[in-house]
C-alpha cells in the first residue's frame, strides 16, 4: 500500500505510549493498534483531528506516501 502510517514514530518522538494516546483521543487500544498497523481502510476526520490535537502535529506527520504504480488498480 502506498500510504505509510508514521504514527509509531510520532509517538516515539513525543515519548508517549499508545495506551495513553488512545485514552486521550477516545479510542480503544485495539482501534489505535489497527491504525498503527495499517489494518484500517479509512479514518474519520474527527478521529484524525483528535489525534493531531493530542499529538500536537499536522496530519502529514502521521502519514507518508510512497508511489507504487503496482498498488494502483
UniProtKB/TrEMBL annotation:
CDD domains the UniProt entry points to: HTH_XRE
Domain HTH cro/C1-type per the UniProt entry, residue ranges: 7-62
Xref: InterPro entries: Cro/C1-type_HTH, Lambda_DNA-bd_dom_sf
Source domain of life: Bacteria
Classification via PROSITE patterns: HTH_CROC1
Alphabetized PANTHER family for the sequence: DNA-BINDING PROTEIN, DNA-BINDING PROTEIN-RELATED
Protein name, as recorded: Helix-turn-helix transcriptional regulator
Amino acid at each position: 500500500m502506498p500510504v505509510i502510517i508514521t504514527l509509531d514514530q510520532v509517538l516515539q518522538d513525543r515519548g508517549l505510549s499508545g495506551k495513553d494516546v488512545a485514552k486521550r483521543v477516545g479510542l480503544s487500544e485495539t482501534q489505535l493498534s489497527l491504525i498503527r498497523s495499517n489494518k484500517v481502510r479509512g479514518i474519520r476526520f474527527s478521529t484524525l483531528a483528535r489525534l493531531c490535537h493530542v499529538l500536537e502535529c499536522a496530519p502529514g506527520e502521521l502519514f507518508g506516501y510512497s508511489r507504487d504504480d503496482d498498488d494502483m488498480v
